[in-house]
Amino acid sequence: xxxxxxxxxxxxxxxxxxxxxxxxxxxxxxxxxxxxxxxxxxxxxxxxxxxxxxxxxxxxxxxxxxxxxxxxxxxxxxxxxxxxxxxxxxxxxxxxxxxxxxxxxxxxxxxxxxxxxxxxxxxxxxxxxxxxxxxxxxxxxxxxxxxxxxxxxxxxxxxxxxxxxxxxxxxxxxxxxxxxxxxxxxxxxxxxxxxxxxxxxxxxxxxxxxxxxxxxxxxxxxxxxxxx
Length: 228
Description:
The protein contains nine helices and four strands. By secondary structure, the chain is of the alpha+beta class. The longest helix is centred in the middle third of the chain and has 32 residues, at 61-92.
């Protein structure tokens, strides 16, 4: 069946699970092991009414207990994720100008191009791209006419829509985008990509030897500093 077939099965299974169907019921439509369905649908929380229906359909008390226990574990995990996310945001708080400066240097050190003269930051996360596009403008003072956009995207996704999306997010005119690189999907691979980047991977870039060398100096300075 390949990648497309597996992806279609996964999406169909998730759709049915959101409707409140049990794994046994889903298997009649999507014939895959229950362990696979469990992995695909582990983050889908059933409503109280849907869960009650599944409980009633179970014949044994032990099975009912297992379901209740699993739902409690899932609810606990999702609750903890939400709490840790809120706590993390609170601990970081509002970033100062220097905080943003250092954060941008760190991100560039991890994901930025190190080749001399070319400044480029690539990622599929819109929040990181938006942060770094603002960072380049604020701290590197790059003229708007020098900014460029480039996209790497799979051939089963909307390349034109991706260009419009990234252009709006970064305020880089579409006329300043490089030709989009279209990658072939590995249709014969049995593996299912967990993260499907709807808008591909975006590169925010410009050519400026002086700015690039300064960024490299910032990175060197940051790494040379002693952490207390």
